[in-house]
Amino acid sequence: MEIEHRHIEIFRAVMRAASVTGAAQILRTSQPTVSRELARFETLLGFALFERIRGRLQPTPRAHLLYAEVQRAWQGLDAVRATARGLRDFSAGPLALVCVPVFAQTLLPEACRRFHARLPEVGVSITPQESPLLEEWLSAQRFDLGLTEQDTAPPGCTLAPLLVADEVCVLPAGHRLLAKARLTLADFADEPFVSLAPADPYRQQVDALFATAGIARRMIFETQSAASVCGLAGAGLGVGIVNPLSALEHAAAGLAWRPLDVSIPFRVSLARPAFRPGGPHVETFAQALAEAAAALDVRLRAGP
After folding, report:
1. Which pLDDT score, from 0 to 100, does residue 91 have?
2. CATH code linked to domain 95-164+268-302
């Protein structure tokens, strides 16, 4: 006899209910059936899963380790079921979108507002994710749409530009450099600087520009996200160079920003999986994204 799905199901129910009686209620079966199948499962495994102490089941350390793996498998099964329901009821299911985290905080709220005004009955599921996992998920056709900073399409996808703008400098309120409408690299000489992490591609571009110009900054802090750069700059700990969407978002909280006289392009691109059946609302959301991106572009062109 081999381990069957029923054995796993019974073990999971016993772990959840902490008793054979409770597991029987969960599974809508009899207590003797649960006890019998649990004993068979332990025999197949070759070790005990529970200790019987004063009439109660106590999971062994091995049981806890096995349960963690069972839970991971169950979550995968739940995802399969959800996907199947979504395919069955595709027109009524939520639109699934994956994006770089900064877009979930900046571009997407306005796009969702526009989309909801047109189709208030349709839900939207937003999953923030960093590259390269984001592109892998898009290639696997797991989402209806994706927002990425890349300028090349992931395999199995098409890509269209939504917004192209330049990185900007963020500064605390009252900083002396705010007297200038546009900043040069020389303005950063010996200036306390809040930087992105060394592996970040934008950090690498910025560092290369300053190295070529022979200008040294005082590298005080480094962090993984543009939002964190903005927070540190807003606290008066230095200046930083970040994407313009993060700068606009934090400007509402009093952070100042200025454009640079050098171009460090920042892209927002819309990815569409080529082999995932497009739901009826994908085009409506894509249009809302284009409108939200255009509105942001107008704000950026108007300047701080």
Report:
1. 47
2. 3.40.190.10
